[in-house]
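Example record

One chain of 169 residues, shown exactly as stored in the release files.
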Amino acid sequence: MHVPDRHELNAGWTLPEAYGVDRLVLLPRDPHWLFAYWEVTPGLIENLAAQYQTAWPAGRTVLRISNLDFKSEKDIDFAADANHCHLNVEKADCTYQAELVHILPDHRFISVVSSNTVRTPRDSLSSTLDPRWKMFPFWQQRYYRQIGGLSSYELFNNENSEPTEGGKK
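Predicted structure tokens for this chain:
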């Protein structure tokens, strides 16, 4: 059986720069970061520019990130040739949506393209304890120690701990 090497697989094939689809995709990266990428076709820009005539060139395009749980929005400026962006969000465990918005000089905003909605993961332990997935006490102690360090009792009474600074074991 013939197994092609990587040079043979990549010979002559390249990914296109664009796919000709107007879209904005939002992905959660971790509890406090999102990643957005977009494509806006020249045809859509031409249609919007024709519709808003002289006001369109004087406006600016921003990426508007909306926290749907707390009903808050934040506008993010980006380079004119950008097609992706990493977004820092303050609140974890929330639902977000993004939108490319063109803001006209008279403060009207025109939605160019909207994203899907995503939910960021929580940044803390779950308050729900499921008995089917209970940890053994040894692992539970070890797990919580990694998160918050030693408790006062463990710090001063643990036989296996190292001496504390300025104190004796």
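Notes: The beta strands are 23-30, 33-39, 60-67, 72-76, 84-88, 95-103, 109-119.
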